Amino acid sequence: xxxxxxxxxxxxxxxxxxxxxxxxxxxxxxxxxxxxxxxxxxxxxxxxxxxxxxxxxxxxxxxxxxxxxxxxxxxxxxxxxxxxxxxxxxxxxxxxxxxx
Length: 100
What we know:
The chain is mainly beta. The chain has one domain. It has a six-stranded mixed β-sheet, with helices on one face. The chain starts with 19 loop residues before the first strand and ends with a strand.
């Protein structure tokens, strides 16, 4: 698998429909990124670990699709995690999702 999680329509490699993948460090097993997908396998949200864009570590990025024309997606600069994100993080740490 690529070092990046599937990015959907941009790359032609889609994630699981309405699913979540977790990228881990192969040496430590630490979570690097959690990505959720919509019903078409396109990214909806990333939760990133191990760095800080001014929103804390971890922090979230939301994906927006303003146009049907390529390139058609925008990943937000980042935001502070919310209670839904915390639940997702707990589920990832408890092994609920596929790790890559």
